[in-house]
């Protein structure tokens, strides 16, 4: 394809004003036949990758483990065979850069991660990482050169708290370095293990203006797209998240000898609270979610009324004001239920991350690309956290989702169909082409 | 006191028909001045005993531990200094026997246990054990001789499942021998450690008719007496108990990416069930109790919707029909909540013990004794299990309760006032005297 045709297509994808009949006609031609990646190659890589870190319990490529190292070696090989020259930053993030035609432009960044949770699946991370490599390779094979440089990234340790991308935007705290990853290794040690250099982390930091934009393809990790019958999710943003640890103190006493009206049952209070949080979050329309995921009882003995329960609430929404409002509501529920059950609720905030809102220009190019490819799509928030939320601190960001079968992820049953993955990579490629036009 | 006076007093205590003016007058004299134990001595023993097995967390005389052995050695010394000759049965239960005047009679048995729970108190068990020794000693000092032999018992390992008394009534199963006590030792090993002989356990078994009756003094372990302002609890029976383990299976999924209406949240189901069980048990008048005491969540992670919860329900009442009825109701609640939350409830019965009903003649002698001593009293069930429930399988049984301050037991804060303990021992002594008359 000639450079001029390509620019016309990009203008069409970006839904830019089209001027003149020649361009219109080019646009029409493109929309009937947009660029596509080599989907078989991409899915072949994923199938090969499935053998790395697979255990009876699921995929275990937890950050800094031997399986993670093997996964990174496989990925490095993909960079090499795709003609992409790998650069490791001090955090151990893998980068490759394809120069653009305009040396004054900051790069467009695409990518994801390849580490997994414990007993996870093969799609959360690798899909977006390998698709980014495939997009860079396909663009080169199809002789498409962007104005912006194109960078491909594979972030390290996403599952342990978006560690690699946090370092890249300068938001990793010294305390984070002492966090123990699921492999049992600290982030500090892990960085050395994967070839980074913890003493030079500041060199890995990118500032505002260093990136023209970031687009990440990822599996949905929920069932919205499947339920709605849509092929592509256009991610409006990554929800803000607040985690509470709530300690409910009652009084442990004999389960047989203590009449029902003389109890200070911390478990009963915890149960009432769990039900009330669920009722509250569902009492309003919207996509807000709240989950009691962790709950520990003391003394946790069949014949003793629980004296203490510690539980967590995970609260998420794209709207910060809604998160704040539900926070206040949950605290009020704790006071009310505490009073009703003669127990005491103490709230501690464990995590508080603000919503990351996608760039509207990037949302538009993603939608236009999906439409051009004939793919059904819808806007949606990401309920899960992603490296994109970190990049959002310094650059325009958006994400593309492909369906997860059964809405399952972080599970050995995690699965996305090869066609859906190819669709996602095609949208990514065309969105990059269009973004090249609309981003400064 | 002369034997004849004593018998008259016994008749009065037993509320037997009084015939003739002479007996009436003796009865009147007795009722104004019933026999009493040496309360200072009894409470002195308890104060000394408090030093054995005391740790920062509470009393730890768990069965077969070094502290249990020390507690038993102390108790043995009390037998000796009280002129009671100790006999260890093959189970390691401690017995002493005071002959009666009628060699044809089976003995009246009194006693309790001296082992404790983990981090327990000094009153649950020792009060009744030492009071029994004190009663035997006081009767001897006051030259009172019963028609029946009087036996004092200190059962081994009550807290691990009324092990000693179960052996004594022939209800210990071979599997029970492999149970691990809180000391980490098996019952089998423990019996050897305390001087029993596991190969001769059948020799320890008592059959129906071997005992005329059994009376056990114990702390209440609940707050009923304190709340009602009563000094003595006359225990109508020991509640039947049913333990369920309920496995609730949902589906673990991402807490951020799974919409509220697409969840199979096992923790939410467990919470609804816990609240529903509480509502059900409180919806009827009566003293039935139900407790969710143990609850374990899988995977128990803040950001994962729980896929499985295993919880227990402890259900107790004096009425077997009521236990059966609530069992059915709880199972129905599981089905209903399972259907409403897209989860599955599976019930397993862990323990099922029938209520043990007290002997009406013994209840009467306890009440008459308390009245004669000027002590306020009320009938009540025992919500806690006791060795008496085992003895009930082979002999008429009743129990005497004294108040627990704050209703607290199985806790380092367990406390019963010395005066209340003396009151309880006095009721025990006079009840034994009266029982000697009413029991065949």
Secondary structure: elements and pairs:
2 copies of one chain form a homodimer.
Chain A: H1 3-13, H2 21-32, H3 39-49, E1 54-55, E2 58-59, H4 66-81, E3 86-88, E4 94-98, E5 108-113, H5 126-141, E6 150-155, H6 163-168, H7 187-193, E7 213-219, H8 224-228, E8 232-238, E9 240-249, E10 253-254, H9 266-282, E11 289-291, E12 295-298, E13 304-305, E14 308-317, H10 320-341, E15 344-353, E16 356-357, H11 360-372, E17 377-382, H12 387-391, E18 397-402, H13 418-438
Parallel strand pairs in A: 5-6, 5-7, 7-18, 8-17
Antiparallel strand pairs in A: 1-2, 3-4, 4-6, 8-16, 8-18, 9-14, 9-15, 10-13, 11-14, 12-14
Helix pairs in contact in A: 1-2, 1-13, 3-5, 3-13, 5-13, 9-10, 11-13
């Amino acid at each position: 394809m000639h450079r001029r045709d390509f620019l016309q297509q990009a203008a069409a994808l970006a839904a830019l004003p089209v001027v003149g009949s020649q361009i219109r006609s080019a646009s029409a031609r493109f929309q009937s036949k947009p660029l596509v990646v080599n989907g078989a190659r991409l899915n072949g890589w994923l199938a090969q990758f499935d053998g790395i870190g697979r255990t009876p319990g699921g995929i275990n490529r937890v950050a800094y483990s031997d399986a993670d190292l093997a996964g990174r070696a496989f990925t490095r090989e993909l960079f090499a065979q795709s003609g992409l020259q790998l650069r490791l930053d001090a955090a151990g993030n893998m980068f490759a850069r394809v120069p653009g035609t305009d040396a004054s432009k900051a790069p467009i960044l695409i990518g994801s991660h390849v580490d997994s949770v414990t007993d996870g699946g093969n799609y959360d991370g690798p899909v977006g990482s390998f698709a980014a490599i495939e997009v860079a390779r396909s663009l080169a094979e199809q002789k498409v050169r962007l104005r912006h440089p194109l960078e491909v990234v594979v972030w390290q340790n996403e599952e342990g708290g978006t560690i690699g991308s946090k370092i890249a935007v300068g938001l990793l705290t010294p305390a984070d370095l002492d966090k123990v990853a699921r492999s049992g290794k600290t982030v500090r040690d892990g960085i050395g293990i994967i070839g980074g250099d913890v003493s030079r982390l500041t060199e890995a930091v990118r500032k505002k203006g260093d990136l023209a934009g970031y687009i990440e393809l990822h599996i949905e990790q929920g069932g919205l797209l499947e339920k709605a019958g849509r092929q592509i999710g256009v991610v409006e943003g990554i929800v803000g998240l607040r985690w509470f640890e709530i300690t409910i103190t009652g009084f442990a006493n004999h389960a047989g000898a203590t009449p029902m009206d003389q109890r200070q049952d911390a478990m009963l209070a915890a149960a009432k609270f769990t039900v009330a949080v669920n009722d509250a979050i569902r009492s309003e329309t919207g996509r807000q979610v709240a989950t009691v995921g962790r709950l520990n009882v003391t003394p946790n003995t069949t014949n003793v009324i629980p004296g203490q329960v510690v539980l967590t609430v995970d609260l998420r929404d794209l709207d910060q004001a809604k998160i704040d409002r539900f926070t206040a509501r949950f605290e009020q529920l704790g006071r009310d239920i505490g009073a009703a059950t003669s127990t005491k609720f103490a709230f501690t905030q464990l995590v508080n991350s603000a919503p990351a809102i996608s760039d509207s220009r990037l949302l538009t190019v993603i939608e236009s690309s999906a439409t051009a490819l004939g793919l059904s799509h819808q806007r949606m928030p990401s309920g899960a956290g992603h490296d994109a939320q970190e990049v959002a601190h310094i650059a325009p960001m958006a994400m593309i989702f492909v369906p997860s079968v059964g809405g399952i992820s972080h599970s050995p049953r995690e699965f996305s169909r090869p066609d859906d993955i190819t669709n996602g990579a095609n949208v990514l490629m065309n969105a990059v082409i269009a973004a090249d036009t609309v981003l400064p």
